[in-house]
Amino acid sequence: MSRRRLLGTAGAAATVTAVSACGGEPPDPQEVRRGQVVGQTTDVPVGGGAVFSDSKLVVTQPQEGDFRAFSAACTHGGCTVQEVTEVIGCLCHGSEFDVTTGEAVKGPATEPLEGFTVTIDGTDIILD
């Protein structure tokens, strides 16, 4: 194999890897991890929430004992939301979402985060 062909092949492989890592549809947490523990209630503060990157979910607790789960993929550009305070925040472009409903409250996102049902077993948060 010529050096030119070797470098061209390596470059194409690197491009495919980069594109697949940054783009495309994120896996559906309900299909990928249904019935599995996605986090611990002790990690989700009342009035806020936590991002669980392994399950690609953000879990909030708007009121004591009321746990809500949403996709962690921002509906604007697909970035993973990074923080939860009084709102779920995506630092990529500044979108914010309501911790109770997942509705977009500040753009550029206009669509809500996809909601998921969870149950609590002791301190385990389990995706239904």
From TrEMBL:
GO MF annotation list: 2 iron, 2 sulfur cluster binding; metal ion binding; monooxygenase activity; oxidoreductase activity, acting on paired donors, with incorporation or reduction of molecular oxygen
- Show which residues constitute the signal peptide: 1-21
Record's keyword terms, sorted = 2Fe-2S, Disulfide bond, Iron, Iron-sulfur, Metal-binding, Signal
Query: What SUPFAM superfamilies does its record include?
Result: ISP domain (SSF50022)
Co-factor requirement? [2Fe-2S] cluster
Q: Which Pfam families match?
A: Rieske
Q: Which GO terms describe its cellular component?
A: membrane
Boundaries of every Rieske domain copy: 35-127
Question: What's this chain's function?
Answer: Iron-sulfur subunit of the cytochrome bc1 complex, an essential component of the respiratory electron transport chain required for ATP synthesis. The bc1 complex catalyzes the oxidation of menaquinol and the reduction of cytochrome c in the respiratory chain. The bc1 complex operates through a Q-cycle mechanism that couples electron transfer to generation of the proton gradient that drives ATP synthesis.
PANTHER family from the UniProt entry: CYTOCHROME B-C1 COMPLEX SUBUNIT RIESKE, MITOCHONDRIAL
**Record's protein name:** Cytochrome bc1 complex Rieske iron-sulfur subunit
Organism in which the protein naturally occurs:
Nocardiopsis aegyptia
